[in-house]
Amino acid sequence: MAIQHWRQRDRYYRLIGSRCKECGAEFFPPVYRCRKCGSENVEDKEMPKSGKILTYTVLHEPLPGFEAQAPFFLAVVELENGGRVLTQIVDSPDESVKIGARAHATTRRMRVDGESGQILYGYKFVVD
Ligand SMILES: [Zn+2]
Question: What are the tens digits of pLDDT across the range 11-51?
């Protein structure tokens, strides 16, 4: 099994973004070049697992692979370090999902790959 594959898996399990070694800026999703100073001297960095809901929407139409889960909350969560994650909000009362609400990451089953039957995991967020 290729190392790259495991690195990719790792990115799904742990919230991995980038940190610029030149200016210290942190980014999520990961970048290859710092968007602040332009340096390519960036390293993987695990992101904070908590933040607050910046904006959200309720999806009533299922997305491919998510049929069993509609309707659901899809939110942009701003992490403690300013990184932004597009994520599903799960296990939270409807009324708790609002702009500015604090939320934290959790690892959940995302979907079953139709061809291989493999269960894919990823991160979702739960309102604190
Ligand atoms: Zn930089």
Answer: 556 788 999 999 999 998 889 999 999 999 999 999 999 99
Q: Which 3 state secondary structure label does DSSP give 125?
A: strand
How far is the centre of ligand 1, averaged over its atoms, from the C-alpha of 38 (Å)? 6
Q: State the distance from the centre of ligand 1 to the C-alpha of 48, rounded, in angstroms.
A: 19
- 15, with CB counted inside 10 A (0-12, 13-18, 19+), is buried
Question: 19 CA to middle of ligand 1, Å?
Answer: 8
Question: What are the tens digits of pLDDT across the range 87-109?
Answer: 889 889 999 999 999 999 987 76
Report how far ligand 1's centroid is from the alpha carbon of 16 (Å): 17
Question: CB under 8 Å to 120, separation ≥6 — which residues?
Answer: 12, 109, 110, 111, 112, 113
Ligand 1 centroid distance, CA of 22 (Å): 5
SS3 of 27, please? strand
At residue 69 the predicted structure's pLDDT band, cuts being 50, 70 and 90, is low
Taking the centre of ligand 1 as the mean of its atom positions, its distance from the CA of residue 105, in whole angstroms, is: 26
